[in-house]
Amino acid sequence: MIYYIYDGSFEGLLTSIYDSYYLKQTPCDISAKPNSQISLFDENIYIKTNTEKFEKVYNSIRQKISSEALNNVYNVYLSNYEFKGILIFNYLKLGWKTGYTIDNYISNESVLNVQRISRRVQKEYHLFLGIVRFKRMEGDFYYASIEPDNNITELLAPHFSTRLSDQRWVIHDIKRGIAAVYNLKKWYMLDLKLKPDFILQSNENDFQFLWKKYFKSIAIKSRINPKLQRRFMPKRYWSHLTEKS
Amino acid sequence: MDFETKLEILSAAAKYDVSCSSSGSARKNIPGGFGSSYKSGICHSWSEDGRCISLLKVLFSNHCIYNCAYCVNRSSNDLPRASFTPDEVAQLTSEFYRRNYIEGLFLSSGVVKNPDYTMELLLKTVKKLREEHKFNGYIHLKAIPGADFKLIYQAGTYVDRMSVNIELPSNKSLQLLAPQKTKESIIKPMNYISAVKTAKNDENRVFKKKQIFVPAGQSTQLIVGATPDNDLGILRLSENLYKRFQLKRVYYSAYVPVSSHPNLPAIGTPPLLREHRLYQADWLLRFYGFSSDELLDDSRPDFDLDLEPKSCWALRNLHLFPIEVNTADYDMLLRIPGIGVRSAKTIVTARRSQKLGYEDLKKIGVVMKRAKYFISCKGKYYGSLNENIIKYDLMSQSRKNLLQSSQYQQISLFDKGDYNDLLHL
Predict the structure, then answer these.
(1) Which of A65, B43, B235, B279 is a Cys-bridge partner for A95, taking CB atoms 3.0 to 4.6 Å apart?
(2) Rounded to a whole number, what is the distance in Å from the CA of B151 to chain A's nearest CA?
(3) Which residues of A touch B14 (CB under 8 A)?
């Protein structure tokens, strides 16, 4: 049994698909972590990320399958699904056979799973367009901490860089230790492992207070329905919501 | 009065306006400004009643010269009154928006002094937001019935959506509960906004410089359960509003008892299920190609609370079923209970590459619990075409319990066990 280990980047993942194709190997998993339960007859192969190979696979997906498929693959790559590497491998393998009709084959397990997971990532992304909460910090910038299930920070950044283009902001995924930073000109990703010790701007608490007041008074008492509220806004996200913490 | 009390009063006073959407506009940010609209809208939070919070929904003032019996802000109601200033609203909207609490502003108002005076205040506020604060987020503004059309026109060039609430679905109800208003006074501004928008669209097709006027269109709201109006009347009204005024949304608001006027019904809880049925029917009108006459008629003017409108329609038209999902056209697929817009679209594309079976449909999200009675896949039928059996099976558990427990004892022969064997013959 062959296990592929890549560096966790999208480039690395597509490089491993390139390698498997030309080595005519079918790995039983492609993951970013070495397999710990390896037995005597198993083999870990470490994939060396190669930009050229990456680009070849990338363009091939777009041209020979579809840009929709490329989108799906990228969303699945950002997801927290444990076996995403091998899922993408199987999906693409079928894709190169079927061409642009790949997403019609819903009775195929890989196609169905890719679509399901891709949709899940998109759904969470859309939810977070709404529930990211910025706090104004000393030093004239806005800071938001998030803990999404999937790695969606880089999807969120373009939206906020056009919308809030006249304020500096940071969106910090504290679960993954990464952050999107916007400096009034452009946004970029960086590693941010530590919990930063920013200080709230002096009147920040006033606006948080007003928002909480508003949140409370807008609810109609005779229609209270916490179950419905949780269905739209699951409890695991609440700790970062100003109105819920 | 301090600002937080004001906000508390004026947001609590606005909460019975159920309009929440922030969709339909694609306004872009401008250099040096902030804010943008998102075509499909964004919900930012959900309040304790489970309704989404997308816009900062406040009244400019809850002073009102009118005394409409159903309204919490009626002039005879003894409650604390407050008014914002245009600066306060603009400032608060900006600060909330910069923290991503909201998608924009929903501004309504009681009628202070007279309609023109009120409309001027609203106009001043949105102008300030757009021009001084350079705010490009979503704005939903109420048009005050009776205000000068010039003011409504100007406001329309600044905001994304405008609305006039009809509230009471018939003239008779209006006379009963809001004798100071007439149907004409409400319909006139809606008609005007719709006419200007159509004219602008025509001009924009010809001229290079595009003019923006209420890009996200109009909406309105109807109160359900405060008057004896039936569902058919309400649904016909909505259908006409969609057709004649190109309304984007009609909202339905289950009447929440806010006063004890002799002309109002004495109800304990708001008729939420009825409201839900109306929303379901509204969706059928807008996205599923149904007309109000198909869903209800004079012999059956109200929705069945036991079953959703689409299933009811299907049960009345059992002769059309079962439908073969692998060959039926898109319009017919949409009419099958348990199949929505997304699954209908998926079916149409997926069946180009393979024949779809029962399991496939389940996987793409068709609600087979409902759909199985109305479809066949690859010629195979999994249900039973018996109206009573289907009806019982489609009911929600809580309705079934109700059916079994109380006044409906006589038809308890539809107990699960009695016919379950029938189903699996």
Answers:
(1) A65
(2) 29
(3) 218
